[in-house]
Structures are given as C-alpha cells and as structure tokens.
Write a structure and sequence with these properties.
806 residues, alpha+beta, Immunoglobulin-like, five-stranded antiparallel beta sheet, 43 strands, disordered N terminus, transmembrane helix, kinase, membrane
C-alpha cells in the first residue's frame, strides 16, 4: 500500500533544496516554485462573517523607480500577486514579468463577462526607448489578451492609472508632459518656467490609439498648485510637477473625474469639450466645504448620472514633507450640481485603523455588499469596513521592505493554462521504511478542493491512483508509503471534477544513497499497486477508517493504553483546556500558543496534581532536527530554513511517537511497581495509581495552532471531550508579557511583536476554540488574577467535568 502518513525522511542533495535567496522569514518559499519568494501577510479579523467574498490583488514593490536587476529582488519577489482572504497565496506573477514593477493590479471583470486582470508594467530600467512600459490585460488563464503601448509623444506609460472601462474596448491612463509657461498667475509675468502638465488619456486597448486627451496645461494655472510658491525658482525641463495627476475615472454619461494631488483638487471634466465643469477642494473649489482633504488619491465615481454624484477617494492629508491632518482617511462625498449653490456633503469618513498617515499613494474601493476596502499602501496595509465604516479586517505585509501602490478585493476565477507543478522525493533509512513525499501546487488556480496522486512504473506506464488529500494551502504535501518511480497528480474541485493534470515526473533520489544515511544496497522502485473498482468503492465508504490506518503504528499504542487529552489555548480573550475520551480510556494534549499567561506555571501545576505527561511540540521538532539518524531531521530543517510551517503530519507523527513511548514507559513502571510487592501499602497503591495515570494523561504544549491541525489530530489520534477556555483581556495580557520581557531576553517580548501575535492568534487559533464551542465542548475560565486564583478556577472547571486530581 502506497498511502500513509508515516514520515520517514532522508537527507537529499535535491528535492527540498532552498531557493537561492536570503532566508527572510517575511517571505514564503515553495518546493514546487523555487524561484518565487512571495510576501507573507499578517491578518487580523474583527468580524469575519461580514467581509465581502473575494481575493486580494496587490503588487509589492521595493523601490518605486525602475532599478538595475539585483540579487536583492531575486528570486522573484516584486510584481502582481493574488491572495485569499486568509493571506494565503493564490497566484504569483512576479517571475512572469522578471521582477519588473507592476502598478494598479486588479481584476477586470467588466470585459466580455469573463474574468480578466489588468495592470501597468513599468518602463524598463535605462531602456533605449523601445520599452516604455505597457497597460496589460490578461485573461483568466493568465495569458496576454491586450498589451496597450504608448503611441504618442509621452516618455513612458505612466504608473498611476490603467482603468479598463466597461467592455474592455478602452482604458484610462494618466498623462504627464513637459510644457513651458509664464508665471503671471504668481505675480511674475516676465518670467517663464517649465512645468509638468498632468492629464488623462482614453486609449483604445487594441491599438493604443488615443481616443480622448485632456491636459492641465492652460486649464489649471500654476497658482492652483500647493507646491509652487511666489518665490519658487523657475525650473528647467522637465519642470515643476505642479498638479501631479494620480487617477482618472469616467461615468456613464461620458464625463471624467481626475485627481490632482499637488492641487489638492478633484476635477470634473466634460467629455464633450474638455472643459472643467467643477472643482472640489483646493484653492478654487466650486463648493463651500464643511470638511477638509488634501494630497488625495484614487478619486472614483461610486454613482453618477451627470448631475448627482457619489464619489470616493483617499484623503492622504499629507505628503513626504508636510501634513494637514493627523490621520489619513477614506472619504465618500455626495455632490449635487442642481442645487444653487452646488453642494458637496461628506457622507462617510473611514479613518486609517492604526491612526497613521498614508503620505504616498493608496486607494478606496466600494465592494458589492456595501463594504469598503482601503489600500493604505505602505507595507501593503489594507483594511475592510462595513457600510457604517466599522473595521472588519486589517492586514499588511510581514515585511517592511515592500509596499503596494494600491490594494483591491474582487471575486475572480483563475484557470491557469499551465499544468500543476509536482515535486516528488524519496526518503528513508532502509528498504523497509521508504516513503515518497509529494509537494504539489497550481499557480493561479482558484477552484482546487483536493489532489489525486498517481504512480507509474515508467514514464508512459498506466497511472495507478495511490492516494488523495484535500488542498491545505498554496502548496500541499502528501506522503505515500514506499518508493514510487514516476508520478503525476490531478487537481479536482469540490464536486470531484478534474480541473487539471500535471506532467509525468520522475521521483528525485539522492546522488549517493549511502551518504544520505540509507542502510543497505540502493533500493529499487516498487511496482504501483492497482486498485480495482470494488476496492475503490470500499475505500470511499471507509474514508474515516482509512485515515486512521494511515497514521503511524505508534497511534495504536496510544489508543491501547487510553489517556486524557487536555488542550490549553491562551489568549487576550481566549484560552482553553481540551479533554478527550477515546477507546478504553482517555488521552490528552495541551496546545498553548504564545499568548497564554502563565502557561508554564499552570502546566507544572497540572502535571503535579493530575499526573500528566508533559510534551512540547516545539521541543520535539527541535530535538528531532539534531537527533543522530533522525528520520525527520532534514525534512524539518528544510521547512524551518525556508520560514515555512512544518507540515502537521510531521508534528502529529512526532507527538504520537512521544505519547506512545511515554505510555509504554509508564505502563512498564506500573507493572514493575505491582511486581515489587504482593501486599502493597496505601502509599504504594497511590503511587501505582499515579504511575497508571501518567500512562493515560498527556499535556501537549504548542499544538494545535490551527483548526486543520486540531481536526487532523482528532481524526487520527483521539477526539476531545471539552476545552477549558482561559479568558484574559488583551491589555492585561500585554502588560504581563511586557513584564516578562524585562527578564526573558526574548526579542519578541515587545509591544509591536506582542500585538502581532495577538492578531495571529485571533486569525489562526481562535477558529479552534469556536469549532469546539459549536460542539458544546468549551468551559470558560477567567485568567485574570493571581496564579493560584486562576489555577483554583481551572481545578474547579476540571472537577466540574469529572476530572479529579491523582
């Protein structure tokens, strides 16, 4: 049988080799796509149920201007990316464009009723004039559909805007052109200076032909600028960037909306004659405003019929040199041009959640369910808010080395034209314990629910199904018993329909089996086992039982002795102890994320009074890395080296082995104690009971940290009976951890790191608690108070469930 969770690892010269890049823990790496180092997201949800469906569209950049390709950006890091709502990678397009800067990356679902993508490819570094950059449109297969060039006298395709209009026949871009003008409007009629006029272009997406052009030259005078002063020295070419246009939009009646950052003005421009119909904000506003904004970005029509408009934009309220307000905000303004005088009413203001300023760039997007999605630009910071402006979610890159000009959220269906990627490697220390480990991904596919794994005796041999698993993340790992030679995979959707199939690949093997730690002669691939239709039907009917058969034999040892399972999840508002009964007894584990207060102290108390065997998932992983002859060491090191989470199958395997060993030792000790005397005293009987309890009770520290880990552990080891939930306010938790930081020497015991851990806990560990609460398996205990006070509550909660001290 080739289907197993047994992890039998062997060091290899290839297979899990790391990408040739610095080991930044703020970047993701993948076995199947070694040239991609995607950015990690830190995500915090306030109310997950009310966020809009969709994916995140971002384009990280490190330096805003084109630069010489350097090792710093290799392998592929900058460029277009799609992430899911958990911050999990969906598509990495960085390699597709050789690490060139990408701007205004988003879904364009208004083209032929089919999913598309649009973005700006920035001009090449130090080019000869032939590569000025382009506006791109890709289809849902990530293949080029339009490539819109610059065909007039402009130097390059401007980075600020590529707004594909309905139907995809045309798109808006920003215009920057040097012009010479007199300075009469700032009181110096005899002087002249060069200026950079800003404007907009409407381009034919098929040919690049200019369908409409508007320029600020001779329409927006120099004195409207907030960056040109009466005593400013005249400029040579290219000139003063006096308006700095950064967005353009078009409504259904054919008029345009243009944002000029350095005029702090939004212009409504006639599509008929190019005249300025009205100005909002700035020195010559046509509206009396009871609100302020400045240095704005991304002005958009939300609704517009030519006379009444609802517009949105980002009020940066600052730039690199100065600020007009203390916090940036997203604004929604209702405009009525039929009133006398015309009115502009602020209907919604959403302040940046962290209270900061977005001095550069950014965007505001109205979502289909009435929510607002805001890209605050710096470090990829973004947030989602409900119709009333309440914060539902915030996220940002784990790296401070990158930002995204804009961030969007859209529904999207990606169907890559390329096949799935698979890498298979054989591991083991002798011929009896070989395993083939698969890593599989499909860059850009959005509908994958699971994977099927096939083996062949030759490259063109008959494929044999050897297993399947659900998709867990961008890259999924699967482990099959034995050494299979040729492999392939299929991606399936939730209805088990095949979406795509990989090419046939040969399993990677060590260059030198002996050096890799293999005992004996070089092994030969095994013949794939063909399962008939009847066996496949039986396997489908016994899915749950088959999952249990896939775990290590050590699980059976644990089941045999029984045990007591305890899970402690600690946090600013949460924590817990999970108790489980299984088979002839009860067994236990304790998962304690970093946020729990006094987890070490409370663990010690529980071990002392309840006879638990204490295990640490982290300690087990660290010990396995350095254990001589380790079956897992190289595999674990490769994941940690690349900043990836060690697959849960490995962690569960180590835990089950440790539990089995501890149970066996305790059982042997109990037998020895019983044999030592035929007439035991009360104290001896109590000691025997304590030894027997330790054989059945386990306290596991640091696991599970995610819901899928809890589900897998319960499915393959033991279901739980309850979770003790330790409830501690965030401010109390932060104070305790900061106090610990005075003596702990831990780099992460500081306010920023602590709050980041809080957000991570809410995102990843809170679903564990919520899942158990839904099964009426959560008992809440306040963690506020002294150690003894909290422990007394814990004991009361345990005894309330019939769990007594030994």
């Amino acid at each position: 049988m080739f289907f197993s969770w047994a992890l039998l690892s062997m060091a290899m010269a290839s297979g899990l080799a790391a990408a040739e890049a610095e080991n930044h823990d703020d970047l993701l790496s993948f076995v199947t796509l070694p040239n991609v180092r995607a950015l990690k997201f830190d995500v915090a949800y306030r109310d997950r149920e009310r966020v809009a469906p969709g994916y995140w569209f971002v384009a990280p950049y490190g330096v805003i201007d084109p630069e010489v390709p350097t090792h710093q950006w290799k392998p592929c890091q900058v460029g277009p990316y799609i992430y899911d709502a958990d911050g999990g990678l969906v598509w990495a397009g960085s390699c597709m464009f050789d690490n060139r800067n990408i701007f205004d990356f988003k879904a364009a679902n208004n083209i032929d009723d089919q999913p598309h993508l649009s973005f700006i490819l920035q001009r090449a570094f130090n080019d000869d004039g032939s590569d000025k950059g382009y506006g791109y449109v890709l289809d849902q297969h990530y293949q080029e559909e339009y490539k819109v060039p610059v065909v007039n006298d402009l130097g390059s395709f401007n980075m600020h805007e590529f707004n594909v209009l309905d139907g995809g026949k045309s798109a808006l871009a920003c215009l920057y052109r040097s012009e010479e003008t007199d300075l009469s409007t700032i009181g110096r009629p005899d002087e002249r200076s060069w200026i950079v006029a800003g404007g907009l272009l409407e381009l034919d997406t098929q040919t690049g032909e200019v369908l409409f052009e508007w320029s600020s030259y001779q329409q927006v005078q120099v004195d409207e600028s907030v960056k040109v002063y009466p005593d400013s020295r005249p400029s040579d070419r290219p000139g003063w960037d006096y308006v700095h246009v950064n967005s353009a939009d078009k409504n259904a009646v054919g008029d345009y909306l243009l944002s000029a950052r350095f005029a702090s003005t939004i212009y409504y421009i006639s599509g008929q004659d190019g005249s300025i119909v009205w100005r909002l904000g700035g020195k010559r506003s046509d509206f009396a405003l009871d609100f302020t904004f400045s240095k704005q970005h991304h002005a958009r029509f939300v609704e517009s019929n030519g006379t009444h408009h609802l517009i949105s934009f980002l009020n940066n309220a600052s730039d690199e040199a100065e600020q007009e307000e203390n916090v940036s905000s997203a604004l929604f303004v209702q405009i009525d041009t039929t009133a006398t005088p015309m009115t502009a009413t602020l209907v919604k203001r959403i302040e940046r959640p962290d209270g900061g300023l977005t001095r550069l760039r950014g965007n505001v997007q109205s979502l289909g369910n009435g929510n607002t999605f805001v890209g605050w630009s710096e470090w990829g910071y973004q947030s989602e808010h409900d119709a009333d402006g309440e914060l539902l979610m915030e996220a940002k890159f784990g790296s401070t080395r990158f930002s995204s000009y804009r961030s969007y959220k859209f529904p999207f269906v990606g169907r890559p034209a390329t096949p799935p990627d698979v890498v298979a490697s054989v591991y083991g220390t002798d011929a009896t314990d070989l395993s083939t480990i698969f890593h599989v991904s499909w860059n850009g596919a959005t509908d994958i629910a699971g994977w099927r794994f096939y083996a062949r005796s030759s490259a063109d041999g008959v494929p044999v199904l050897i297993g399947n698993t659900t998709k867990r993340s961008f890259e999924t790992m699967f482990i099959a018993d034995g050494y299979v030679d040729w492999v392939s995979v299929q991606a399936v959707d939730q209805d088990e329909q095949v979406l795509g199939e990989s090419e046939v690949h040969r399993t990677q093997t060590p260059d030198d089996w002996g050096q890799a730690g293999f005992q004996g002669t070089e092994p030969k691939p095994e013949e794939p086992y063909w399962r008939g239709e009847e066996e496949e039907e039986e396997e489908e009917e016994e899915e749950e039982g088959r999952a249990e058969r896939q775990v290590l034999k050590a699980y059976e040892v644990v089941r045999g002795v029984g045990g007591f399972l305890i899970l402690i999840l600690g946090g600013c508002t949460l924590g817990g102890v999970m108790y489980c009964g299984c088979g002839r007894g009860m067994r236990a584990y304790q998962a304690v994320p970093d946020r729990v207060y006094g987890k070490g102290t409370q663990s010690t108390n529980l071990v002392r009074d309840y006879g638990f065997t204490h295990l640490s998932a982290g300690d087990l992983l660290r010990a396995e890395q350095i254990r001589p002859g380790s079956e897992y060491g190289e595999l674990i090191r490769s994941y940690i080296r690349e900043g990836q989470i060690v697959p849960m199958e490995i962690t569960v395997a180590l835990l089950s082995n440790a539990m089995a060993a501890a149970a066996s030792e305790a059982a042997a000790a109990a037998a020895a104690a019983a044999a030592a005397t035929s007439s035991a005293s009360d104290e001896q009987e109590k000691e025997e009971q304590n030894v027997d309890a330790r054989a059945k009770r386990f306290l596991i520290d640091g696991f599970p940290r995610q819901l899928d880990q809890a589900v897998f552990f319960e499915a393959t080891v033991c279901p739980s009976d309850f979770t003790l939930f330790l409830d501690c306010p965030e401010q109390v938790m932060e104070a305790r951890l900061l106090k610990r930081g005075e003596t702990s020497g831990r780099d992460d015991d500081n306010a920023d790191s602590i709050r980041k851990r809080f957000r991570t806990f809410v995102q990843t560990s809170m679903p564990v608690v919520e899942a158990f609460a839904g099964q009426d398996k959560v008992v809440s205990v306040s963690a506020v108070g002294g150690v003894d006070e909290v422990y007394a509550r814990i004991r009361g909660a345990l005894e309330g469930r019939g769990v007594m001290a030994v």
